[in-house]
Amino acid sequence: MDFESVRPVDIEKRSFEIITRELEDAGIVLDERTAFVTKRCIHTSADFEYTSTLTFSEGAVDEMKRLIKGGACIVTDTNMALAGINKKRLASFGGEAFCFMADEDVAVRAKELGITRAAVSMEKASRLGRDVIFAIGNAPTALIKLYEMMEEKIFVPKFVIGVPVGFVNVVWAKELFLGGDVPYIINRGRKGGSSIAAAICNAVIYEME
């Protein structure tokens, strides 16, 4: 592989050109409605497996765009994902991004109940009184708590991005939402992460511009 001289301003564009070419060479044809999301996940991870594992509910991208245009906020389960989301561009649509993992009241309640901060963060997010897009890239317990609140008819999220990474309950937690009524973007299997959660959010926000 030869060295390629690319201006800093053109690196991202060139990366997407390479991704597109390699997909074509492999004979992989993406759904044009969701291709830009999948490509950004590949760009973030250099992992082409997302072409087969990233799963979208019917009309997911259009629904996420509608929510953002309406000023919906995004709640993440890690400060890393929060840092990765382009909050300035989200704000241009009237939205905000939050992560409650480091909040003292969350830590206290999690210790009292013997559950994860991620689960308590979901409870706190449910009380925002706003439309919420949940971007979960780390904690399957966050997805489980959201599902439990739905089952108990306490709260129904407007949209779920479920891409936690790991080994314990990760695959099972993601599958709770597959085929359900809540619009979703889910990455089946063990892969994902905070960077992927942020990448999905940014892909949709950038596409809207």
Tell me what you see in this structure.
It is a single chain. With 209 residues, the chain is an alpha/beta fold. It has a single domain (55-208), classed as Rossmann fold (3-Layer(aba) Sandwich), CATH 3.40.50.10230. It has helices at residues 11-25, 35-45, 50-53, 60-69, 79-84, 87-91, 104-113, 117-125, 140-151, 170-175, 194-208; strands at 54-56, 73-76, 97-99, 132-136, 159-162, 184-187. The chain has a 6-stranded mixed sheet with strand order 1-6-5-4-2-3, with helices on both faces. Helix 10 links the parallel strand 5 and strand 6 (184-187). It is globular, with a radius of gyration of 17 Å. The N and C termini lie far apart (35 Å). The model has no long low-confidence stretch (mean pLDDT 94).
Strand count: 6
Task: Label the overall shape.
Answer: globular
In the predicted model, the low-confidence regions spanning at least 5 consecutive residues are none
End-to-end separation in angstroms reads 35 Å
Output the strand order for the largest sheet: 1-6-5-4-2-3
- Give the integer mean of the pLDDT values: 94
Q: How would a textbook summarize the main sheet?
A: 6 strands, mixed
What order do the helices and strands follow?
A: HHHEHEHHEHHEHEHEH
- The CATH architecture can be given as 3-Layer(aba) Sandwich
Radius of gyration: 17 Å
| CATH topology tier name | Rossmann fold
Count up the helices.
Answer: 11
Helix content: 40-55%
CATH class assignment: Alpha Beta
